[in-house]
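Why predict the complex rather than its parts? Because the way molecules touch one another can change local conformation, and only a joint prediction can capture that. The input here totals 391 residues.
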Amino acid sequence: MTEQTGLSLIDRAALVTPPSLARRVHGLSERAIAWVFITPTMLLLLAINIFPLIWTIWLSFTNYRANRPNAPVLNVGLSNYQSILTDPDVWAAMTVTARFVFWTMLIQTVLGFTLAWLIDKKFRGHGLWTTLILLPMMLSPAVVGNFWTFLYQPQIGLFNYVVAAMTGVPPSSFQMLAQVPLAPWAIVIVDSWMWTPYVMLICLAGLRSIPDYIYEAAEVDRASPWRQFWSITLPMALPFIMLAVLFRGIENFKMFDMVNLLTGGGPGSTTEVASITLKREAFEKWRTGYSSAFAIILFVTVFGLANIYVKALNRVKSR
Amino acid sequence: MSRMIQGHSLPIGRSRWPRLLRRGPMESLATALIVAGVLMLLQPFALVLYTYSFVTTLIGIVMFTIVSKFPD
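Output of the joint prediction:
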């Protein structure tokens, strides 16, 4: 790639390389230079990702407890996996996760696509609205969790007053984070508030990728706006919607921070998603071997979904 | 088609690789297994489905990894 100065990127890199380093590198083959640059990253990845993964796989076959490092570590075979996969409590945590994933994905997809469709109309001030809508996505989940905890306060929280103004019920008559029927919805609302803009962004990319001539042809054929939406907009944006759904599905499946900050899995175990159960097994009951097996089960599930995600991504790319 | 498969004289269009074992359908099958495994893991109806969900997902992933190297 030639820049305005007439020097290529490689030439400019050569110019800024210190002479001492250039002397050392001079004489090495291109393959060797590539290895020199790649090796630190590979070592870092091995140390941070691959080694802990292999270590966790090994621990999952043992009775190791991190709070008893001197106790003998026995190989228990597949019994950790067996007890997790036959435990009704863990199964209950999975169903809580499933409900959370289902509702967040549904709400975020519907709202995200609707917002993208509206933003795509390019009305006056749509740039400002896009920026405002995208703001929650840019916040840290820790910050979001903390300030929504305040918003949900029954005495001083704004959320209860807004609901009271809209429905007429007294603001202190319900507690979003402390009541069994409301707590799961409190988390769904926060997650949807935070991540709908992300889905909107992907859907917007999908909508903007539809060529105008298709709509023009539909206009010539006197297709109604409703027909254009069902026959052009939705089918052509569908791969992008699928991508957003899959990505949010994976993210919500391993959701931890927001749930931990808002409810900590409570009241009771109403909002105890799989990652909260995992944290309790690992750092409250100190069943490290057992929780390692649980982590591997979750990892395999996420890995499977990631495979599908990559396949969907390739399909979108090839369009 | 003039391109040849490595070391073979058959054109790509007439590959000896069985039609059913080509990448596309096999990847779809592996994807279906992964989806089935995830659904079995997250469903609230039968404990036995939950018990076999992990194995199903694992088989799907291993299959996906292998069949993604198959010819188209």
